[in-house]
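#onboarding

Welcome to the new folks! Below is a worked example of what a typical request in this channel looks like: someone posts a single protein sequence, and someone else replies with the predicted structure as tokens. Don't worry about understanding the tokens yet, we'll cover that in week two.

Example request:
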Amino acid sequence: MLRGIDHIVIVVPDLETAAKSYERLGFTVVRGGRHPIGTHNALIALADGSYIELIAFYETNPEHRWWVPLERGGGLVDFCMQTDDLGADTLALRRAGVEIDDPKPLTRVRPDGYRLRWVLAIPRGDHRGVAPFLIQDETPREERVPRETTHRNGVTGIASLTVAVRDAGTVRPWYAQVLRQPGDPIQRDDLDGAGARFTIGPHAFDFVAPRSGGSPLGEWLRRRGSSPYAATLRTSGRTGRLDESLTQGALLSLT
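Example response:
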């Protein structure tokens, strides 16, 4: 069963620059370590159990699914879901029409030398970034996710994720079948778009298609294809849109 967002992914050209930028925005940023596929990360853990992953390449890897999005501007590129049964949820997504690979292992070595291990099921092709990738820990999750969840800006969790799609009618049946809920029709006048909203655990997911050529989603889809567009974070502090020059191109708002 899908339980909510495990983490959202923000790909950046330089990890240390990004970490310092997010610290300026009031986040507590913890250096995460290196993956054996040419990436390294820094993490922003949140009180709702999710986290924000800042990820960059320390080695050239054009085959990586986030390499091309980085070349097209980076920012918010993907999202990972928590599951209590990776095999069953992978199969459920596949039966719903999602092209998704069988689960495969991955590791990360933290700066203190601790080796984390987990298994991922990753969608293929155009389904990446629209359907989630799934994770199941082999080492304890509390070792993968930093324990520091307090931030100067008051952020406590992820409220919602907006995913730009060309046709919400294609995506909606995937989630309706897997979640066994129809989702709610929505109109997003701020984006001149319409689509469907699903709630998974504490998080809302808006899958939104442009209603006209004037929608900002149209240009996004031309440049980036169907993919995560923006995220809203819960805060006990000041609300509003975060400075895009400091978020490394990610569209993030506090609410």
